Amino acid sequence: MTAVAEALENATDRVESHLNPPASYDLADHPVPTGREEVWRFTPLKRLRGILDGEASDAHLKWDTTLPVGVTLTEITAEQARELELPPNERPAALSAELSGGAILLDVPAETVVAEPVVLRLTGSSVDDLVWGRVLYRVGAHAEVTLVLVHEGSARYSAIQTFLVGDGAQVNVLTLQDWDDDAVHLGRDAIRVGRDASVKHTSISFGGDLVRMHANVEYAGPGGEAELLGLYFADEGQHLEHRLFADHNAPKTKSHVVYKGALQGEKAHTVWIGNVLIRKVAEGIETYEENRNLVLTDGCQADSVPNLEIETGEIEGAGHASATARFDDEQLFYLRSRGVSEKEAQRLVVHGFFNDLIRKVGIPSIEEKLLETVEAELAKNVLKELV
């Protein structure tokens, strides 16, 4: 073991984050939550419909795949998955590992440049189906690939996903939660960024009754960069929750987080929890996390909690920002003064709020679809009754 690798391992063993429990496959280490725990206090447990009880199930989602040349998708055993994946650190992910019966491995060989996006479309048929998912994505050194994961239909779905990004690789991941109104989705995306590698991870949630997504990042060596983007739009009664954890366990690494959400309708609820841990070994790192929420109607609630845990002062920069607000009166006044109707002015402000983030996705076909979806969400309610 090299001196750097030994230092990284020792640093990881000594420090734990209060918002990121230790990893373990033992379900006894992940008891059924009561709702009083810090990591569960925002989640309406009764609406999880028994997922946390851990009932075995043979149900599956339907998979439709677009695999460019050079990309393979194979089934592996649970034992093989354990040798590769990042272990679970929460009960839903541990249950998924325990009950999935195996795993799916997507492989992109080293040095491979995949010109077209890899698209995995996962569709559920009924909310009565309880589905346990376990998927690994292995991208070889200096490879380049875009991965698009689309969730739709209806199910109760709990999944653990691991992204292993080789040294010098460039990976763009987009996961879209576009479920039917009754679906429940608990997901954990664990990402290991190789030396001098670059990862963009975008999580987008529109559909579902309750969606709770995690994106966890750690580094396999110096020089890795991670950009974590998110967009969500909650309607009446929806609960959309996104949790981020960037573990700077290597020097000269970077993370940049930007999540934006809008809420409309009675009891629409969004939760964003961002956490960055800067370990003693992580000198020279840069990190910033930002969350913005736009409240469009009365009766909504947006919870936003950024966190920084810093073990060393030898860093390039670290910061965070969080804001929840209604429409900007100055923007509306500017548009109205130039002859734009009130309803059109409000629509333009919402599009402007999301537009810069959507343009960062880096997948033109998806960017256009997102703009259309935002327009459809606005047509449901907000353009009829805006604050």
Automatic annotation (TrEMBL):
Residues 1-30 are annotated as: Disordered. Residues 129-353 form the SUF system FeS cluster assembly SufBD core domain. GO terms for biological process: iron-sulfur cluster assembly. It holds the Pfam family SUFBD_core. InterPro entries: Fe-S_cluster_assembly_SufBD, SUF_FeS_clus_asmbl_SufBD_core, SUF_FeS_clus_asmbl_SufBD_sf, SUF_FeS_clus_asmbl_SufD. It comes from the Bacteria. Transmembrane segments: none annotated. NCBIfam families: sufD (TIGR01981). Belongs to the iron-sulfur cluster assembly SufBD family. This is Fe-S cluster assembly protein SufD.
